[in-house]
Amino acid sequence: MTQQISHTISIHPTLYGQLEVDWNKEYQNEFICPHCQKTKLKKTSYKESSICKLRFICHTCNKRISLTCLVPAFIYKYRSDIECPNPLCTQLGHDGQKGWIYTRRNIYEQCECRYCGVGFVPQSTAASSWVNSTTERQLLPFCFEDDIWYLRHFYDNPFPESINFQNISPQWYLLEVKKYIQYLLKSRVYSSPSGVRHTLTNLKQLGKILDTYKIKQTVDISREAVLRFLDNYKNCDNKTINHKLSYIKSFFEWLELDASHLIRSRDYLKEIKNDADWLDELTRTSIKEHLSKIPAPIACHYLVQEYTAARPGDICQLIFDCLVEENSKWYIKFYQHKTKRWHQVPVTREIRQLIEEQQQWIRQEIGLEYTHLFCHFRNVRSKNYPNFTTMKPLPIPPPLTINDNRMVAIIRLLIEKEDIRDANGQRPHFTGKITRHNRLQEVRVKYGIEAAKLYADHVRSSTTFQNYTPPTREQVAEVDLPFQELLMNTNSKFLPWQSLPESLLNNPKAHELDLEIAPRLVVYGHCALDPKTPCPVNLYPKCYGCSSFRPSTGKLPLYERQYKGEQQRLTEAKQAGAELAKEEAEATIEAMDKWLPELRNLAHG
């Protein structure tokens, strides 16, 4: 018979073979309970299903103590061949490499650093991965024949990093597109890669049309192909269509084609420019009241960007030593990548103090080598608002894209969590660039349009006015309503022509306003009488029945609206028994019936 090993015997591998210990015979109660520190462990138990089958039992605290403990994963899955990709991790592992890397127990073979907690996949090639984003890839020599071109050959820190020429046909067209894109890159027509990317996108779309028409060479590109291209994108807004036409026209001009024949001036659509959007005073004040709740570097980023009215990309790339002193006055200096020139604005004591505190934080958290004032962060989770305890800094500038910019994400969270509302009770939509509009509008209101122009470093005041600081509705009403009241003459007073503004007499169209107003307040059209001769009957609605009245086809929609309004007024007057209103409405309808049908025929004929 085979002799069975006693349950109280444990076997331990050593350098000199296996060590067998019979705990019933050799154990002399040397161990004390590690939990209560009161009782010496005496009794042993055996459990077959346990990883460590032999265990002690403490009579005082009734806890079971294993003779051996589990080896943690960072020990038995240690990877000495991999270093930590986190640039902020400075501790050294067992073999002298940066970090202590071990493999996690999951299907993706993900690794983790024991020191900084960063998780990553060593073989990952994704642009957002730790390995790919923190390790500078080797830049291969430029090759014209490649389908993928890396823009680092032409731009510093480009976004996107590459463009591709895949799926462009026919072959002759692909060659011309490559030559044109190479020309744009070498001549730096666009200050950023975005212009090149948009150009390539539209040329790809045009290539599909040329392939459909079986065009074999550049001289065969026809007007019909351009019209087909426009027809494919007719559902886009006017601004997008005009941009597409501009990109394609520049390409045709480079090919030395008759671009004015292929793309006509009438192809460009009228653009309706919306007013610049900004956060109202109530929203800005509410945001600043809650900034103390979020991490200080994020709050500083927001305040500096708003104060300087700089473009978001310029603040993301703001240098560490941005404070300069000139003639005992302090300024914040930053580089404008769009105009490629330096700009500086006076800085207040509060903003200067914020920047100095941010400089100290950068030196403590990232180090002396980092050259920017702000940095990117990882592990920003909405569930950790407002402290963001898991958020860690990275020694790279904040990304320009809205979805990746941590300042934008956290300010949006602040607006949501604190339930911030604007003056209309709506939740405002925060974007990175909206801070520029906020500050310039504030400067314009306080100091005038010229001050806002200098603050924004614009060449022309019209740029500031049209794109950033148009007048508010209240400002328009303050100037415009008295003028409209004069023109409307609601009290039916006698107004000689000399009382009208000189600009109105010289250029009437400059003062025409197509407003949604009540139908009985304005007479639309022209008077054939000498303007120096006062009108003998200055009472609406007799103008529409006067022989000197001349209607305008351009005002036909307004006449139609007034005509319907008078019909409705006539119906209501009959129901209410208002004889005077009934007579006025009937007189107006009768007068308009004499010339409105003929005017319709002229307008639609």
From TrEMBL:
The organism sits in which domain of life? Answer: Bacteria
GO biological process terms, semicolon-separated:
DNA integration; DNA recombination
Domain Core-binding (CB) span(s) in chain numbering: 175-256
* Record key words, sorted: DNA recombination, DNA-binding
* SUPFAM superfamilies linked to this entry: DNA breaking-rejoining enzymes
A family per Pfam: Phage_int_SAM_1
Q: Does the keyword Oxidoreductase apply?
A: no
Question: Does DNA-binding appear among the keywords?
Answer: yes
Q: Which GO terms describe its molecular function?
A: DNA binding
Q: What is this protein called?
A: Site-specific integrase
